[in-house]
Amino acid sequence: GAGVSQSPRYKVAKRGQDVALRCDPISGHVSLFWYQQALGQGPEFLTYFQNEAQLDKSGLPSDRFFAERPEGSVSTLKIQRTQQEDSAVYLCASSLVTGDPTNEKLFFGSGTQLSVL
Amino acid sequence: SQQGEEDPQALSIQEGENATMNCSYKTSINNLQWYRQNSGRGLVHLILIRSNEREKHSGRLRVTLDTSKKSSSLLITASRAADTASYFCATDAPGNNRLAFGKGNQVVVIP
Questions:
Q1: For the segment B55-79, what is each residue's pLDDT rounded down to a tens digit?
Q2: Per-residue pLDDT tens over the stretch A34-56
Q3: CB neighbours (10 Å) of residue A113?
Q4: Among all residues of chain A, which has the CA nearest to that of B5?
Q5: Do B99 and A106 touch (CB under 8 A)?
Q6: Where does A1-117 show beta strands of DSSP type E?
Q7: Distance separating alpha carbons of residues B26 and B59, to the nearest angstrom
Q8: Inter-chain contact A102–B41, Cβ cutoff 8 Å?
């Protein structure tokens, strides 16, 4: 596609519900990142994939958060037993390079706004 | 934790004026990037400056980097209403394959 696509655009969940957020990166992009952005704050790193390999998941806030990218393209961020503090915008970004992904620009999707009631 | 810290946090200017915002960081870096985010949208890359560069231009944007002070500035010249957005600096965290973002500068350009 022309850009990074994320769905759904908005998600409202009841506390305790499981949610799945989808990211479709730019075709051919090797690196994929998930970020969490609280209202009025900058994005916080969650996890990083290079192709299908999850190379860094140190930013995931708890074991309720799980991400996968089984075929090295589409990625899913799953949050189990959602809590109110999970309410945020979840941003996905991709990058073409296979080397140091911070050496090149990231292409971001519009994000999924998650509200946990 | 966030690497970058932008200053000032919010800026309101008249169209045509210049807007300057700053970013400081704590550890050594390989490069520093600036991104723009319009309300309700994702981030858009503006410019990347490497640690061995001191100044870089892109259109109406001018970025400086002072590694001795661990700081960077973004200047937008001849601002337009369409420049209204939040601006974030991001640095690479040493040893990690990630960008660490600051809290952002909110810029409002009044027509």
A1: 999 999 999 999 999 999 999 999 9
A2: 999 999 899 999 999 999 999 99
A3: 17
A4: A42
A5: yes
A6: 5-7, 10-13, 19-24, 31-37, 44-50, 53-56, 65-68, 75-79, 88-95, 107-108, 112-116
A7: 29
A8: no
